[in-house]
Sequence to fold (550 residues):
Amino acid sequence: MISTTTRQLRASYAFVERNAHLVKRYWSWELVWLAYSIANSLSVSYIGLGMEQISGQEIDGRYLVLYLVVGTLVWRYLSLIFYWITDVIGLERWEGTIEYTLMTPIHRLTHMAGQTAFAVAYSLLFTAIILAVTVKLFQIDLTNANLFGVTLVMLSGSLSFIGIGIVGSILPLLFPERGAQMTHVIIALLLLVSGVYYPVAVLPPTLRKLSVFSPATYVLDGTRKALLDGVPTAQLWSFIWPTLVAGAIAIPIGLWVFGLAERYAKRTGKLHRNG
Amino acid sequence: MDEIAIHVSEAYKVFHKQSRFPWNRKNGHGEKKRVVAVDSISFDVSKGEIFGVLGPNGSGKSTLVRLIATLLLPDSGAVAVFGHDVVHDRIAVQRLINRVSVEASFFKKLSPMENLIFGARLYGLSAQQARVLILEILTRLGLERSTISKPVEEMSRGMQQKVAIARALLTRPAVLLMDEPTTGLDPRSKREVQALVRELRDQDETTILLTTHDMVEAEMLCDRIAIMDAGKVVALDTPEKLCAMVPSHNGHSPTLEDVFLELTGKKLIEEDDVE
Fold:
């Protein structure tokens, strides 16, 4: 007789393995996506080099490039985590397997833990590849960067995005036809207020106030400090704790809201309609 | 006294459908159209029994299966599997049941082996245990070994349905819910599935709830049959006793089709499902 914990761990791993198989089978799409992401990051980063010519003033273009590189990389990482987690339902709606997965004897925490573990591993690897290409192309010197601090800030930031992703995943559950597309709104709003490509100080007062509540603001600031200024890990705590608090709040809220949405979908018969 | 495997008491399920455009709504005031899918149904199924549910599309068969499968919540009444309530004891019920539906529903790019291992892990099986069982079950179902590692999308509908049956058998369910499992299958595959249903009951004492349009299949396999129409059970008995309810015409013994016609005034015609 196997214990409940072993049972749930096996179930969690099932999602990691399934997603890995899907990535393997859709390898050509993964290559296209990687090429798109690299091109996207590079084109944003080149704005840094172009600013001197655009403005006609003397600007530290190299610093601007690094500033934008950090923005594109952190944003790619956080949004990948978000999309993989929201796909927990969207993917199964697309394949028509949602009813089979939701009638298995597992807790939703188990379900989300598996999807999250894969999301973090995939996003780290994907972002590392883009980073390697960017560093090579822009001849970026990372000798003074605090790479351990960067990893720490990004991992702590993942927690809050996991919670936001779980909340986002209820959209495909509640709106079978357009729910997956609705998740883009969440990510677009976070992109606007978090200072991905500009300091939040340039935002109007209302949006600036909102940026305080976006965990991405702290992840971006912390990563820039560690990567560009080489700030030691101990001094990064002021960027880490807000994201940990956001994660500690967002994950339980996400699971609770998901539970409510699942009950609603089961009450109204929305589970078996494929979008 | 026989052990009760499925207990359904006054189960009631209504769906509310609202048109996208106000002028199409029933009374023009934005009220939703009510469709009673399951209308205060009660019955018990004993352990090891093959219980048939006959009825046209839209009669509420699939909704009934989804209520037992924990995929829908009843609006009132109670549904229990081996004493476990489907609403309050979801995981205990899910450990005891599995389902085969008319759509095979798989991750189509993955192979049967990858799909089945995913399913098995969700029920707490290890990959090693699952691999042995999968080969055993698929061989028993007459599926060639060479097809096990090819993507599901390359398989015929009949073969996909066999893999769907294998997914359900893999977890050795005490209660198997079969929702039109032979619809769309060729005669040979149909016979193989029917033989397997009998074998499951005889060898493993599995309780089977089978919904079908096929009168011959129902008469041949089921110990008792419930005839459903517009969400209600209009008759419930053994096939022989149901046929005895209708007088014979011109020396011909009445069939289940005659019984259905006599009780509902309708034929078992194909219509869109209400669910």
Observations:
- The first helix of chain A runs from residue 4 to 25.
